[in-house]
Amino acid sequence: MMKKIYAFVIVSLLIFGGINTSMANNTEEKIDLSNKNIMVIELEYGKVFIKLIPELAPNHVERIKKLVNSGFYDGVVFHRVIDGFMAQTGDPTGTGRGGSGQNIKAEFTDEPFLRGVVGMARAQHVDSADSQFFIMLADGRFLDNNYTVFGKVISGMEYVDMIKKGEPPTNPDKMLKVSLISEDEM
To answer: What is the pLDDT of residue 36?
Structure first.
């Protein structure tokens, strides 16, 4: 039932003006959803739709999808949210030190870290990404070629902007439910 509702939302957005993302430089990008997977993060404020990009990071996208399908991210807080930089989540302990226990080899590309880009968090070792990820609140080009980009917000960035700030936030927001939809399921 939920997938049908998501499918209706996506199809409606496509028919009535398309899904687009307003980036910090005020350009709008139309997204071709054919054969692309979409991750949906339900926040208290609304739903955030993230286009997963397996062409950039196939192993990261595969791992994220497995974690999403297992319910791993449901109820997980945004433990580090820096105004004008990024919102980080994906640690089930909420401390920034936890994860799923399975590291992923880095998949760095030339894809720039612009507002709305979703990247994998990691420790100092380049191959230490696990389950934590972040959504860029603003451009952060100093991250280019140093962190793995695996997705991009295509709708709902205004809800990401509403996430409470702090390291950690006093009363952190959480991902109520995280799910996947793909156009071939619509």
So the answer is: 58
The tokens of 150 are what?
């695996």
* CA 13 remoteness from chain centre: 19
∠ CA 89-94-97, nearest 5°, is 85
Tally of helices (H runs) and strands (E runs) in the chain: 3, 10
- Condensed to tens digits (0 to 9), the pLDDT of residues 25-59 reads 333 445 444 445 899 999 999 999 999 999 999 99
Q: What whole-number percentage of the chain has pLDDT above 70?
A: 78
Query: What is d(CA 177, CA 158) in angstroms, rounded to the nearest whole number?
Result: 18
Which domain does 122 fall in, by range?
Answer: 2-185
pLDDT of residue 26: 35
- The CATH number of residue 170's host domain is 2.40.100.10
Q: CA-to-CA distance for 85 and 74, rounded, in angstroms?
A: 24
For residue 105, what pLDDT is reported? 97
Phi first, then psi, for residue 30 (nearest 5°) are -80, 135
3-class secondary structure for 27-88? Answer: CEEECCCCCCEEEEEECCCCEEEEEECCCCCHHHHHHHHHHHHHCCCCCCEEEEEECCCEEE
Instruction: Answer yes or no: is pLDDT of 165 > 70.
Output: yes
Return the closest-CA partner of residue 20 out of 152, 149, 114, 119. 152
Taking the C-alpha atoms of residue 139 and residue 171, their distance in angstroms, rounded to an integer, is 26
Q: How many domains does the chain have?
A: 1
